[in-house]
Design brief:
Elements lengths: L59 E6 L6 H15 L4 E5 L6 H14 L3 E4 L8 H9 L4 E4 L11 E4 L2 H18 L7 E5 L5 H15 L8 E3 L4 H14 L5 E4 L2 H14 L5 E6 L2 H9 L4 E6 L4 H13 L15 E3 L4 E3 L3 H4 L7
Parallel strand pairs: 1-2, 1-3, 3-4, 4-5, 5-11, 6-7, 6-8, 8-9, 9-10
Antiparallel strand pairs: 10-12
Helix pairs in contact: 1-9, 2-3, 4-5, 6-7
Family: Belongs to the bacterial solute-binding protein 2 family.
Organism: Pseudonocardia adelaidensis
Subcellular location: Cell envelope
């Protein structure tokens, strides 16, 4: 997962299976995994039309590398990238085997470089450790679209596209803050189930959450960090609930891990608070739509960014820009927005959801 501003050097993955177009402003966001009800990552949603260049252009080959699809959001990333590439008759899509091994991913990208692909779309396992191979591609004249987890140096990529982790926290904080303020709750106890604390993306989500809550005069109370898995979410939430006999609201950073979070809440028989999720999985959205649990909203971090990354790679490789912009070149960075999904608007977003 990566974060709001590429200059911050944040890293990451995450949720929602939309294939938004890369128009003047690509929007929407999301993350999550486990036992999918549909094929891993859910079915890829119909991709958006080509941004700024729907007419066929020079034939190009786009190489693609991403981590293993052991998480619903990551699976949706791969599905969306492939589905988007199929929309272009002038694109040959070469995806290397997904892997969570850093050395194997570097070797796979080097293979694509040696084949002389026209552009690369790379979601690195670790942006820092793959910076060198990204720069290697750029030095070889192959433009790199850096997806989500950002490389350490802008010399390693032509364009970065990813989600807004700080914005996720802000969206969650405003939803919780406004709901509690409107209900007249004084001195609320607000819990937080974070992801992996040493990841910049988690730190950004927490910072945005704190900043938004502060505008209402609220602050975070009990906080536990999990590991973006259902098992981890269940374990840390059980601990959080034991330590907090009263809660008014909870934000869980990730809908994949949210499966375990909800399981712990149900096992404890707690229902005095409401919860906001993170990423926008179809599972979470169905729960919100049913309105039978504490989960009342989720904030997005959309894997549709992979569809947009392929569309951008095509345009860059063909020397084209985005038709809705005045500039003839594709921008150097695009940050997706984080939407808040509630019962009122969930029907609009549900077709974009990915399976956890």
């Amino acid at each position: 997962m990566k974060m709001s501003d590429p200059s911050r050097g944040l890293h990451r993955r995450r949720f929602l299976t939309g294939a938004l177009g890369v128009g003047a402003g690509a929007a929407l966001t999301a993350c999550t995994s486990n036992a999918p009800a549909a094929p891993a990552g859910g079915p890829a949603v119909a991709p958006a039309p080509a941004a700024g260049g729907s007419a066929p252009g020079t034939p190009v080959t786009i190489g693609f590398s991403a981590p293993a699809a052991d998480h619903g959001w990551i699976a949706a990333i791969a599905n969306n990238a492939q589905a988007q590439a199929k929309q272009f008759p002038d694109v040959t899509f070469e995806a290397v085997n997904p892997t969570n091994d850093i050395a194997q991913q570097i070797a796979a990208v080097e293979t694509l470089i040696n084949r002389g692909v026209d552009a690369l779309v790379i979601l690195p396992n670790d942006g820092s450790q793959l910076t060198r191979v990204g720069q290697q591609a750029m030095d070889a004249g192959i433009p790199v679209i850096n997806l989500d987890r950002i490389f350490d140096s802008p010399l390693a990529y032509r364009t970065w596209i990813g989600g807004d982790n700080y914005g996720m926290g802000v969206s969650a904080g405003h939803y919780i803050g406004k709901r509690l303020r409107d209900a007249g709750v004084a001195n609320p106890v607000i819990g937080e189930v974070a992801g992996i604390d040493n990841l910049p993306l988690t730190q950004e989500r927490t910072r945005g959450f704190n900043d938004a809550l502060a505008t209402y005069g609220f602050s975070v109370g009990p906080r536990q960090a999990a590991d973006f898995t259902a098992q981890g979410g269940q374990e840390v939430t059980a601990n959080l609930l034991q330590a907090a006999p009263r809660l008014d609201a909870v934000w869980n950073h990730d809908d994949d891990q949210g499966i375990g979070v909800l399981a712990a809440i149900n096992q404890a028989g707690r229902s005095e608070f409401f919860m906001v999720g993170g990423a926008g999985s179809a599972n979470a959205m169905r729960e919100i739509q049913a309105d039978t649990s504490v989960l009342k909203a989720t904030v997005t971090y959309s894997p549709s960014m992979a569809s947009s990354a392929v569309a951008l790679a095509r345009l860059v490789a063909q020397g084209r820009g985005m038709s809705d912009l005045a500039e003839p070149e594709v921008p150097a960075s695009i940050t997706l927005a984080s939407a808040t999904i509630t019962k009122e608007n969930v029907a609009t977003y549900l077709p974009l959801g990915f399976e956890s």
